């Protein structure tokens, strides 16, 4: 169940500790009788009457009197005499400065029937006086607005009012309350921070101690005061650590500086005093309250020993990177431009060193491409090098850091230890210099003490783990490798089959066997030839012939010359060698007859052996020739097949094979001694006989490099799109080929056709010369300009399931499933495996405080048993106590311009999915025995904030359509925001959420159309634009310019028109500020630093997301106060945007759940009051549920089953507000408050004017402008303008003409001068405009008004008649 995007009301049912699903009352009456149905429900439930009667009337003519709304005063009235017993959490009245109404809580409704918090809660939060009724004109306007959008009367069923005695507010208003909470919880750290920013640190010591490990202290003069001393005890430190990351993630050195001393720390491992490199840095007494300043200080915090404890230390880690991002950061759209400017600046600096014509040309060209941007000089990226250059004009060299990064052993560090310490200390000095600049700017930009105080907890997060963490990593890696190996085996098999075409019909086994046989024959041939030659040599010896010797070419030439010169002499010397004509006979030396006979017999035997040897040599040669012929015949057959592929590339069988490079199949053979010798290939050839495409798979190693990400895999799997083969093109990526005769199938589809002029440039000749077909791009989530490079990516899995993307091989679906299953682990494995985990080890004094002394049992046995099961080694015996450890997530507390925290693993971790290996990551964060996790998700946090901005225009909750849908909309009835969007677009409700949040964050029509094509690939561009346009017309409305009503264009007629008009008004301020805590925008997005209308989307996004950060900070500070006030054993564990989780001692779990609900209602009420509405809807006052769990997960009932975690995790516990109130263990000890009231009373508070009220004074809005924003049709808008002219001509806004020939606008008319008139503030009270804005209206003589042409005059008369 997804609670994040809807509100769940508390129904009057029996308390339960499971997720409560509350049925809605069935609506059987039509819309027009909804009010009667509501009245019937109220009477049947015994609820009190609503605060004002609701009349379903048409909008009446508005008067000119100012709109009256309640004041923001929240003073508590004198106690009432009614002392009826109340259904509260306490049995006894809570101690309070002022008595609380303890009678039965009564339900309350506003003028449009939105149920508010009970009178009992309203008295404790906003004061006992009931809010004054909203001006009737605004009520009527809200009704008409809701009626236009078919929402009027479609409320959810009323619910039982909730009442209980809350912890009392600190002060007379919510603003004072939170100001004092922020000041109290931020003390003394805020004072230390300001003081440290005003002080200097001593000069750097000239020499560093590198002979002893541990801490060394240096005096103001730089001399060593003490070695192996205690850790720094100063209350203010600038701090930095250095690591040899290629060897170990633990620190090897650190430096710190205070206003009075310098400190250095060297690891005992570096100096050989210990063989253990896992050395943490001691920082002294953890209870000491101090600030530690660093750049990306969370990295340094993870190396501090005292931080690895369940008990939070007194150290406040202040991050200069975060402070810079909040004050001078840049949005993602600005970063590329800034990088170009920096590169150009570096080129200019390089040119100043000496003339370089080529460099000067590059600079000139770059300068022409870059337009001047003022904001570039008011921002920088977040690295210390760039931040120091920006704020302090300091140059920081990172050569030493790079040198340390290349070290592969600690021995490399020892001779350069002092140099590295000096580098570390210089970073500390630079960090402090930056801090002195950015802290004052941050406190000016974010002045509310809550914005500072919350950073202490945001920078001190921790995540407990046990042995299951190691098993999780090992199991995920093993399953991933198994899946990859299996799919790779299939792909290798298909690849070998395709490669076999290079060798005809033979299999690789047969071909290998023949080649091996030929090699063996060659060896036998050599052996047989040697035997034959030996026999011949013996025969020659008997005959007296000299042995044959191989002569060189030179000796042969000399022999021929000698032969010509002395032929006669040789003939005279050898007369006996010539005989009579006839058959030659072997000459035998004249010996005895016996010897001659023996020699003759020997010769006969040799002759016989010679014939047998010759026969063997011939037989071997014949066999080799036969085998070689088989290979040659097979190669000829292969050549015919390859030729067929080239001749008919787009046949059914060849469409994929023709895209491969079949060249390179030649085999190089050794030179034959005789023509009859077998062909012997060279030994060091790479895959002889195989084509180039196959050889490319072995470039990296001797193993085939093929996977689902290899391009050739799609061809081996013979992938098709709608039955057409996939074709790779360099220009368009993967495409599919459609014959010309079938192109009509795609004429009305969003498929992008490839340009034929571009295709002729393709390297594949079959594509470049193909005139028989048209190529279409495969769709891509990135839009029509993006190209698909891997059709086996997880984004294409749905096309396989829909039968659009197909293959004749089952392995294709298996490969796609594997890729989808492993996608999470592939992307996150390095980040997960590199997590810095520190394990508890009491033997060396590393006690993390996991032990819990308690009388009662800790967690339920099922949870404890599962915890043991998760952490048990496969096949091992589980010990009584798990191995315990902590991870300190390295979070940048304000990593973006919206002040959102960033971290690359835990803040981006997805929920567990059944088909994703390793996706159970968050569930591996497990509470130790005796503890649990308590937390909640803020229901539709940023959507509610946006809708509240629109409701503020009507001075009531739900007055704006988006506000009504957010508060009262029902998924079942189709009246919630996501259901409405889904019906307009024809998509699922879950997909509609993406559209809604993107639109609220400022995304435009192009985004919506692109997203729609992604969700529905059968929609073409024109259809997508039309549907998206309809959505924006229904939601944002129509952008309209009417100078008579407003100076600037405005949205009208949509459900969200009021919201976007106000958001754009926020964004267009000189220095936009969040409406609740008044946090300012970064300088890079301030209006005077950017062009007109530039980065509007980013500024709107900032207004919403930064307000969401304000919400989180208010919640954190409230919890900090309540935890201290009632001594709850809990601390903040992690926050993920709108999620918040605490690690809590088991016995305090329900009290912390109650504290979370109190903190939430305080925070929501603060937002409402600062928006000008002194009330709060009951539907959003409380968390829909508070989760109590033993593992970290989105919902307590997620079993977190994945391929790497097949065993389901038992569910946790989820309690709603009713369950909490019914549980005696949830009772906060209000009578045992530990914070002295005097401490809070001494905090001085100065009331401030709400930001929205300040904006209202500037905007000078009036009732007619609101009517115009409601107008859906042009005739309605014209009617509003007519009413304005008739009823309030002094409110007509006009501007002076510019230039000659300005067309006469019949909607704008002038009068003499500008009259002062009453404007309304945020509460709807009048503001007398005694000093009208200069040039606010026209001062134009009557004669200057041009006469309209005859045609325009007729148009004007027709328009007036329509009015």
UniProtKB/TrEMBL annotation:
Residues 918-1148 form the DNA-directed DNA polymerase family A palm domain. It catalyses: DNA(n) + a 2'-deoxyribonucleoside 5'-triphosphate = DNA(n+1) + diphosphate. It is found in: Mitochondrion. Keywords: DNA replication, DNA-binding, DNA-directed DNA polymerase, Magnesium, Mitochondrion, Nucleotidyltransferase, Transferase. Its cofactor is Mg(2+). It is an enzyme of class 2 (transferase). Its EC number is 2.7.7.7. It comes from the Eukaryota. The keyword Nucleotidyltransferase applies. The keyword Transferase applies. One of its GO terms (biological process) is mitochondrial DNA replication. GO terms for cellular component: gamma DNA polymerase complex. Its main location: mitochondrion. Residues 66-86, 555-568 have a biased composition (Low complexity). Residues 853-870 have a biased composition (Polar residues). GO terms for molecular function: 3'-5' exonuclease activity; DNA binding; DNA-directed DNA polymerase activity. Residues 62-101, 546-599, 850-880 are annotated as: Disordered. Pfam families: DNA_pol_A, DNApol_Exo. Belongs to the DNA polymerase type-A family. PANTHER family: DNA POLYMERASE SUBUNIT GAMMA-1 (PTHR10267:SF0). Involved in the replication of mitochondrial DNA. This is DNA-directed DNA polymerase.
């Amino acid at each position: 169940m997804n609670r994040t995007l809807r509100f769940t009301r508390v129904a009057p049912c029996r308390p339960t500790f499971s997720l409560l699903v509350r049925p809605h009352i069935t609506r059987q009456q039509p819309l027009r009788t909804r009010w009667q149905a509501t009245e019937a429900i109220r009477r049947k439930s015994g609820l009190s009457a609503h605060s004002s009667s609701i009349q379903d009337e048409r909008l009446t003519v508005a008067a000119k009197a100012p709109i009256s709304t309640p004041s923001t005063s929240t003073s508590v009235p004198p106690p009432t005499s009614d002392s009826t017993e109340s259904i509260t959490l306490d049995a006894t009245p809570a101690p309070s400065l002022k008595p609380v109404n303890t009678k039965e809580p009564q339900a309350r409704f506003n003028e449009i029937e939105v149920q508010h918090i009970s009178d009992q809660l309203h008295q404790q939060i906003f004061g006992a006086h009931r809010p004054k009724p909203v001006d009737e004109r605004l009520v009527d306007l809200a009704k008409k607005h809701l009626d236009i959008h078919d929402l009027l009367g479609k409320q959810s069923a009323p619910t039982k009012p909730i009442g209980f005695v809350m912890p009392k507010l600190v002060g007379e208003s919510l603003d004072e309350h939170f100001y004092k909470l922020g000041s109290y919880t931020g003390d003394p750290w805020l004072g230390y921070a300001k003081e440290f920013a005003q002080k200097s640190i001593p000069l750097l010591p000239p020499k560093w101690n590198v002979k002893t490990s541990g801490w060394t202290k240096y005096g103001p003069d730089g001399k060593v005061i003490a070695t192996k001393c205690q850790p720094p005890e100063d209350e203010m430190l600038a701090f930095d650590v250095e690591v040899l990351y290629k060897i170990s993630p633990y620190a090897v050195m650190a430096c710190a500086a205070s206003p009075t001393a310098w400190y250095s720390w060297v690891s005992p491992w570096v100096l050989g005093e210990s063989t253990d490199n896992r050395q943490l840095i001691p920082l002294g007494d953890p209870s000491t309250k101090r600030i530690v300043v660093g750049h990306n200080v969370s990295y340094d915090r993870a190396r501090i020993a005292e931080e690895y404890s369940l008990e939070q230390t007194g150290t406040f880690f202040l991050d200069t990177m975060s402070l810079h991002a909040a004050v001078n950061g840049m949005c993602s759209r600005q970063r590329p431009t800034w990088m170009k400017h920096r590169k150009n600046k570096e080129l200019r600096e390089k040119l100043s060193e000496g003339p370089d014509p080529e460099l000067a040309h590059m600079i000139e060209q770059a300068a022409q491409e870059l337009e001047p941007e003022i904001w570039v000089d008011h921002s920088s990226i977040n690295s210390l090098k760039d931040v120091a250059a920006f704020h302090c004009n300091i140059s920081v060299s990172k050569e030493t850091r790079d040198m340390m990064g290349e070290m592969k052993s600690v021995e490399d560090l020892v001779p350069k230890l002092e140099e590295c310490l000096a580098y570390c200390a210089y970073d500390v000095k630079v960090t402090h210099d930056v801090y002195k600049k950015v802290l004052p700017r941050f406190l000016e930009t974010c002045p509310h003490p809550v914005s500072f105080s919350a950073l202490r907890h945001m920078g001190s997060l921790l995540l407990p783990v046990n042995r299951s963490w190691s098993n999780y990593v090992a199991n995920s890696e093993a399953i991933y490798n198994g899946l990859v190996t299996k799919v790779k085996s299939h792909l290798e098999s298909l690849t070998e089959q395709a490669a076999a075409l290079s060798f005809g019909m033979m299999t690789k086994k047969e071909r290998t066997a023949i080649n091996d046989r030929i090699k063996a024959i060659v060896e036998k041939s050599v052996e047989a030839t040697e035997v034959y030659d030996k026999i011949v040599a013996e025969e020659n010896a008997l005959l007296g012939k000299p042995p044959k010797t191989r002569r060189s070419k030179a000796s042969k030439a000399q022999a021929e010359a000698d032969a010509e010169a002395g032929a006669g002499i040789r003939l005279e010397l050898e007369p006996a060698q010539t005989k009579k004509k006839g058959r030659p006979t072997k000459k035998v030396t004249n010996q005895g007859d016996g010897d001659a006979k023996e020699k003759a017999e020997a010769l006969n035997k040799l002759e016989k052996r010679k014939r047998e040897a010759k026969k063997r040599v011939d037989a071997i040669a014949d066999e080799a020739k036969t085998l070689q012929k088989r290979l040659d015949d097979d190669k000829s057959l292969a050549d015919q097949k390859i030729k067929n592929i080239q001749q008919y590339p787009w046949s059914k069988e060849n469409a994929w094979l023709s895209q491969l490079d079949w060249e390179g199949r030649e085999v190089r053979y050794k030179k034959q001694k005789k023509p009859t010798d077998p062909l012997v290939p060279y030994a060091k050839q790479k895959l002889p006989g195989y084509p180039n495409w196959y050889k490319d798979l072995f470039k990296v190693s001797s193993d085939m490099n093929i996977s689902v990400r290899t391009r050739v895999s799609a061809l081996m799997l013979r992938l098709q799109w709608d039955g057409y083969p996939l074709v790779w093109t360099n220009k368009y990526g993967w495409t599919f080929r459609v014959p010309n005769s079938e192109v009509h199938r795609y004429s009305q589809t969003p498929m992008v056709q490839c340009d034929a002029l571009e295709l002729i440039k393709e390297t594949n000749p079959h594509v470049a010369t193909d005139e028989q077909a048209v190529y279409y791009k495969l769709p891509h989530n990135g839009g029509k300009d993006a190209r698909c490079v891997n059709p086996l990516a997880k984004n294409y899995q749905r096309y396989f399931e829909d039968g659009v993307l197909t293959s004749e091989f089952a392995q294709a679906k298996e490969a796609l499933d594997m890729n989808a299953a492993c996608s999470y682990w592939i992307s996150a494995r390095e980040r997960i495996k590199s997590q810095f985990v520190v394990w508890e080890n009491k033997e060396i004094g590393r006690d993390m405080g996991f032990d819990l002394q308690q009388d009662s049992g800790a967690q339920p046995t099922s949870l404890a048993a599962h915890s043991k099961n998760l952490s048990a080694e496969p096949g091992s015996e589980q010990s009584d106590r798990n191995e315990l450890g902590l991870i300190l997530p390295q979070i940048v507390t304000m990593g973006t311009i919206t002040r959102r925290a960033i971290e690359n693993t835990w803040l981006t971790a997805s929920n567990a999915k059944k088909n994703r290996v390793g996706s159970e990551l968050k569930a591996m964060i497990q509470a130790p025995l005796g503890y649990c996790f308590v937390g909640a998700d803020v229901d539709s946090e940023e959507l509610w904030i946006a809708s509240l901005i629109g409701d503020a225009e009507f001075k009531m909750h739900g007055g704006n359509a988006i506000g009504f849908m957010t508060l009262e909309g029902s998924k079942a009835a189709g009246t919630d925001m996501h259901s409405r969007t889904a019906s307009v677009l024809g998509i699922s409700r879950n997909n509609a959420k993406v559209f809604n949040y993107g639109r609220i964050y400022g995304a435009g029509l192009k985004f919506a159309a692109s997203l729609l094509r992604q969700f529905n690939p059968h929609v073409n561009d024109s259809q997508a634009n039309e549907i998206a346009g309809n959505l924006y017309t229904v939601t944002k409305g129509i952008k309209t310019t009417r100078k008579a009503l407003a100076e600037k264009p405005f949205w009208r007629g949509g459900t969200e028109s009021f919201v976007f008009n106000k958001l754009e008004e926020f964004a267009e301020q000189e220095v936009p500020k969040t409406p609740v805590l008044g946090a300012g925008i970064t300088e890079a997005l301030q209006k005077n630093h950017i062009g007109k209308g530039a980065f509007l989307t980013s500024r709107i996004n900032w207004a919403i997301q930064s307000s969401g950060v304000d919400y989180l900070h208010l919640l954190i500070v409230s919890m900090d106060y309540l935890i201290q006030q009632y001594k709850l054993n809990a601390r903040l564990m992690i926050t993920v945007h709108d999620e918040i989780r605490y690690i809590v001692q088991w016995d305090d779990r329900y009290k912390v759940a109650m504290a979370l609900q109190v903190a939430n209602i305080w925070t929501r009420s603060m937002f409402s009051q600062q928006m000008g509405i002194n009330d709060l809807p009951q539907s959003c006052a409380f968390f829909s549920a508070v989760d109590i769990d033993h593992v970290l997960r989105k919902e307590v009932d997620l079993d977190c089953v994945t391929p790497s975690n097949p065993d389901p995790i038992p569910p946790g516990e989820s309690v709603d507000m009713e369950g909490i109130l019914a549980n005696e263990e949830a009772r906060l000890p209000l009578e045992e408050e530990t914070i002295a009231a005097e401490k809070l009373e001494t905090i001085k508070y100065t009331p401030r004017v709400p930001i929205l009220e300040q904006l209202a004074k500037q905007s000078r809005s009036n009732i007619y402008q609101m009517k115009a924003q409601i107008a859906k049709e042009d005739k309605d808008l014209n009617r509003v303008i007519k009413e304005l002219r008739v009823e309030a001509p002094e409110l007509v806004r006009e501007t002076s003409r510019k230039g000659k020939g300005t067309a006469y606008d019949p909607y704008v008319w002038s009068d003499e001068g500008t009259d002062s008139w009453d404007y309304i503030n945020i509460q709807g009270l009048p503001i007398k405009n005694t000093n009208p804005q200069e040039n606010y209206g026209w001062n134009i003589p009557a004669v200057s008004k041009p006469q309209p042409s005859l045609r325009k005059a007729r148009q004007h008369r027709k328009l007036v008649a329509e009015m």
